[in-house]
Amino acid sequence: MDTAADHADFFKTLEEKSDGGKLRGDYDRADARYVVEQEWAGYTAQQHALWRRLYQRQARLLPGRACEVFIDSLAKLDAAESIPRFDRTTEALFKATGWQLVAVPGLIPDQVFFEHLAARRFPVTVWLREPQEFDYIVEPDVFHDFFGHVPLLFHPVFAEHLQEYGKGGLKALRHDALKYLARLYWYTVEFGLIESRQGLRAYGAGILSSGGEIEYCLSDPRPRRILLDVERVMRTQYKIDSYQETYFVIRDFQHLFAATEPDFSPIYECLDALPALATDSLLETETNLPPHVATAQLSSTGG
Ligand code: PHE
Ligand code: FE
């Protein structure tokens, strides 16, 4: 796995994926697992200030929109003022759920990514976006990776689920079924919604690190909101350059855990024979859940 040929392969695929563009990260210093030093002292005052602005904009939007555990864990991270030190976060995180953060230059090969997750190591990109990318960025940066993903790693059931996902990823590679598992990740870990006693909330990192989608996903009448069904999700295509047209809803993290626990091998076999579903499809058997209507009390708790 760690041969030069495999690495060259990774960069070639990425070049193709990104229309010949090259990755932004500096991969020269990465080790065999693509891990680098965070080099926290190298961030500039401007970068810390941009982080602070991103954090403030996003934190204001969380009450009434993000799931409770996300809000509570984020508050404990002490990451409002500057780009956080991964080693400090790891200290708290390791005590809570046994997870660690590792710094990476950017996107890493699927197999390496899964190996990290399977070992309870979460890869976090070291570089921060440029000011002109405040609202939108294509490749994940430290703000998306840290702000969006890290808080949920403090939840014991989600933490367990993500490790299982890592193991499942290695298995999907062996089954040539990565496409299906990637869709599941997209519609859960990145863009998942969750029910709460107060109504619908977001738990997906792609939503929670986005200034616009965090409101759109909950209250806009246009997208579909469907109760999670693993096989259905695995058949559903997704868009990476616009808001989602469909969101999948879990009842709680135990629901997500239980739904993904069964052996996927037989599912993978069947899926090859079924057509993919469009991003905006709604099957006859499915209910499109109503959008969430924020109450005055909920929408005024921001700040
Ligand atoms: N149960 C899945 C399998 O057998 C693995 C998995 C677990 C995938 C959790 C996603 C999330 O492949
Ligand atoms: Fe992500």
Task: Write up what this structure looks like.
- This protein has helices at 4-17, 45-61, 68-77, 86-97, 110-118, 142-149, 156-174, 178-190, 205-208, 213-219, 230-234, 253-260, 265-271, 296-299; strands at residues 100-104, 121-125, 193-194, 201-202, 224-227, 246-250.
- With 303 residues, the chain is an alpha/beta fold.
- The strands form two sheets. The chain has a four-stranded mixed beta sheet. It has a two-stranded parallel sheet with strand order 1-2.
- Helix 5 (110-118) crosses helix 7 (156-174), helix 7 (156-174) runs antiparallel to helix 8 (178-190) and helix 7 (156-174) runs parallel beside helix 12 (253-260).
- The longest helix has 19 residues, at 156-174.
- The protein starts with a helix and ends with a helix.
- The structure holds phenylalanine and fe (iii) ion.
- Residues 140, 144, 148-149, 190, 205-206 line the site of fe (iii) ion (FE).
